[in-house]
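Action item from last meeting closed. Structure (190 res):
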């Protein structure tokens, strides 16, 4: 028979209170359970998705008129950027995206820049005049804006190699920052 005298009950109460206090002091999601890139992306100003998001796939047009699925980039780290030629903050970040693209050329990495709602000829002219070297895709009907850029443009997502959305940035950003380049190179190498 188990001794349930006052001393045992008192000891069990103390142990229970200590366990509850310890549990309350621990973070809800311990840092050890978060992906290794979380603190680095957050320090750079990105919103990190916990858990990573898996939105529905979509198809865009290339500047030459063929189509491309977002999912075709699996196996690569992807910078998915929603923008427009008339948007000053979008235009401001183009040179830094170009530097990023050139710096990551030999790694499993892809820039997937989607122009929202503009005529193909206008976008092609803009890309040619501004010597944009990274891939630019078209969503001429603006069908992706509500799902991916509802807070404004530019809106950028980082996708992991499995195609999951791991982080986002709303607004213009300098993608050529050494810390950002280093992080993406590290992500591409894993």
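Sequence:
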């Amino acid at each position: 028979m188990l001794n349930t005298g006052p001393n045992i009950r008192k000891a069990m109460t103390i142990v229970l209170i200590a366990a509850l206090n310890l549990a309350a002091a621990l973070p809800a999601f311990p840092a050890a359970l978060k992906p290794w890139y979380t603190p680095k992306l957050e320090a750079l100003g990105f919103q990190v998705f916990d858990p990573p998001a898996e939105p529905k796939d979509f198809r865009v047009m290339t500047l030459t008129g063929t189509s491309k699925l977002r999912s075709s980039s699996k196996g690569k780290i992807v910078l998915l950027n929603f923008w427009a030629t008339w948007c000053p903050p979008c235009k401001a970040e183009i040179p830094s995206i170009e530097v990023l693209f050139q710096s990551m050329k030999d790694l499993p990495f892809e820039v997937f820049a989607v122009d929202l709602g503009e005529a193909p000829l206008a976008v092609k002219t803009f890309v040619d005049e501004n010597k944009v070297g990274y891939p630019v895709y078209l969503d001429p009907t603006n069908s992706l804006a509500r799902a991916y850029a509802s807070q404004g443009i530019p809106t950028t997502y980082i996708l992991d190699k499995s195609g999951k959305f791991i982080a986002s940035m709303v607004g213009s950003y300098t993608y050529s920052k050494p810390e950002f380049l280093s992080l993406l190179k590290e992500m591409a190498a894993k």
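Note appended to the action item: Residues 7-29 have pLDDT under 50 and may be disordered.
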